[in-house]
Task: inverse folding
């Protein structure tokens, strides 16, 4: 006779298999995301006159991205304040876009909404950073 006691261990085995598979795929996704972040931000920071190696530590990279936007690194703490962080991120994107000679549309869409793509475009194009444009 088939009872519920036979099904419960089978379900437990299935949950274990799913969670380990999900953990593995999310770990691989995280590593790929980190590699893409470093590949996009390192040359971006170098073009902006900041140390490129700071892209290896994403929190530190945020300080230097804010500095590339012409603001004090202390302003980076605004990323910790809810709602304010959204407004601040748009301001940083606009200032970075202007510093590299791009308009507001490029800045908002590619440096704020899809920042990784925007950083790749600026990093591997002939754009130059000019503090006078900020």
Result:
């Amino acid at each position: 006779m088939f009872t519920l006691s036979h099904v419960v261990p089978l379900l437990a085995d299935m949950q274990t298999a799913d969670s380990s598979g999900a953990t593995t795929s999310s770990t691989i996704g995280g590593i790929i995301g980190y590699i893409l972040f470093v590949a996009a931000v390192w040359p971006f920071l170098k073009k902006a006159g900041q140390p490129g190696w700071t892209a290896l530590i994403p929190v530190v990279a945020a300080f230097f991205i804010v500095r590339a936007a012409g603001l004090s690194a202390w302003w980076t703490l605004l990323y910790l304040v809810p709602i304010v962080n959204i407004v601040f991120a748009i301001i940083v994107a606009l200032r970075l876009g202007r510093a590299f000679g791009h308009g507001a549309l490029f800045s908002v869409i590619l440096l704020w909404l899809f920042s990784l793509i925007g950083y790749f475009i600026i990093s591997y194009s002939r754009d130059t950073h000019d503090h006078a444009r900020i």
